[in-house]
């Protein structure tokens, strides 16, 4: 699979084309690559406001997303298929940029915050929740019980504190990591899945492993803001499309004809509320890897437990005494999950979708080696060939 972008006269990405085939030496290139051999799978076009914010993105297959803003803050997202609205989201913020109102497909929630901008309350219809925190910033409030994944699970770690196995309820899941510390293989019930990443540690493909041989099952495509766009089902060769809300959560997955395959909803901490699946999918809350058996989310440096709103291991960044919340080495996004996401287990970022695309050229390769960083450096030096997906 090959991805190529095109720029407009202002240097903004205005089109991304996806074609079958791997291109030269199995390279997926962005911005300035030679077109790959193979038929076209799809094309996405982008529209910008005069200030550079993304107004919309549209697929040639009929799926489109429109964004609206209040100043520079995201205020609305509409996902359509062939002109018919599939999802509509709206957001209202206070003076500190905290989300105090949210509408999701006609259902409205409201939220309150404490003086430290931590979520303190949520109200959705007749369902109200309050959250409190101890002096160390740990959540100690109602709604903290885990109702998904494993209950009373036991956890095992390696010598560098990486999670290596989880067991409970008669199930056991094992994890291994590559030379860059990224999740490399997951094993459960004799089935092993292998994962491949780009140089920015984004998941680019997954494969089934049998007898030591890996067979690619899905390859992933991201838009130029780094959020999920689609994946290619290697069995059929067709694309399947992700639908996201303003937080970057996967709320739906559809086939190339627009038929719904999967749908999801979440609590504010990322725990699943509703799950409807006809095909397997590991990318869920905030567009990140989710293990449905264990109820844990993989965020590269650490695993996150949405049921407890805490990371499984402490942050190697020890914090700053001038920022008391950073001194809690287990807290997730400073206890403000509506306004922020954490993609690497070390730092959190605002969730606002949109903004100016950075159009510097980059090249992404896929290679089946333990230690992606080593492979990437050797490829740039011309000493190895990347294996095609």
UniProtKB/TrEMBL annotation:
Keyword Repeat: yes
InterPro entries: Rhs_assc_core (IPR022385), T6SS_VgrG/RHS (IPR050708), TEN-like_YD-shell (IPR056823)
Domain of life: Bacteria
Alphabetical UniProt keywords: Repeat
Domain Teneurin-like YD-shell: 64-337
NCBIfam families reported for this sequence: Rhs_assc_core (TIGR03696)
The protein's name: Teneurin-like YD-shell domain-containing protein
């Amino acid at each position: 699979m090959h991805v190529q972008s095109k720029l407009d006269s202002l240097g903004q990405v205005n089109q991304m084309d996806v074609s079958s085939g791997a291109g030269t030496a199995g390279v997926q290139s962005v911005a300035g690559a030679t077109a790959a051999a193979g038929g076209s799978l799809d094309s996405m076009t982008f529209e910008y406001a005069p200030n550079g914010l993304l107004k919309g993105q549209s697929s040639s297959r009929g799926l489109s997303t429109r964004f609206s803003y209040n100043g520079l803050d995201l205020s609305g997202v509409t996902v359509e298929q062939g002109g018919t609205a599939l999802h509509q989201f709206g957001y209202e913020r206070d003076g500190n940029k905290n989300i105090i109102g949210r509408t999701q497909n006609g259902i409205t929630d409201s939220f309150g915050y404490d003086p430290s901008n931590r979520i303190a309350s949520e109200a959705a219809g007749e369902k109200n929740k309050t959250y409190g925190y101890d002096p160390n910033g740990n959540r100690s409030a109602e709604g903290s019980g885990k109702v998904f994944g494993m209950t009373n699970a036991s956890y095992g770690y390696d010598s560098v504190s990486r999670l290596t196995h989880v067991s409970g309820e008669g199930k056991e899941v094992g994890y291994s990591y590559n030379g860059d510390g990224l999740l490399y293989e997951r094993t459960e019930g004799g089935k092993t899945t292998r994962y491949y990443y780009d140089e920015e540690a984004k998941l680019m493909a997954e494969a089934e492993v049998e007898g030591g041989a890996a067979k690619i099952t899905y390859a992933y495509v991201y838009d130029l803001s780094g959020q999920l766009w689609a994946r290619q089902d290697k069995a059929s060769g067709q694309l399947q499309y992700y639908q996201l809300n303003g937080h970057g959560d996967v709320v739906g997955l559809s086939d190339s004809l627009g038929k719904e395959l999967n749908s999801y909803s979440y609590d504010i901490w990322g725990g699943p509320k509703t799950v409807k699946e006809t095909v397997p999918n590991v990318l869920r809350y905030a567009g990140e890897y989710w293990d449905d058996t264990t109820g844990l989310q993989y965020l590269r440096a650490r695993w996150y437990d949405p049921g407890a709103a805490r990371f499984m291991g402490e942050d190697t960044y020890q914090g700053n005494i001038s920022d008391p919340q950073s001194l809690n080495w287990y807290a997730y996004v400073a206890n403000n999950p509506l306004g922020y996401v954490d993609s690497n287990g070390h730092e959190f970022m605002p969730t606002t979708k949109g903004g100016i695309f950075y159009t510097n050229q980059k090249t992404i390769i896929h290679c089946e080696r333990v230690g992606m960083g080593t492979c990437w450096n050797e490829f740039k030096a011309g000493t190895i060939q990347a294996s095609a997906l």
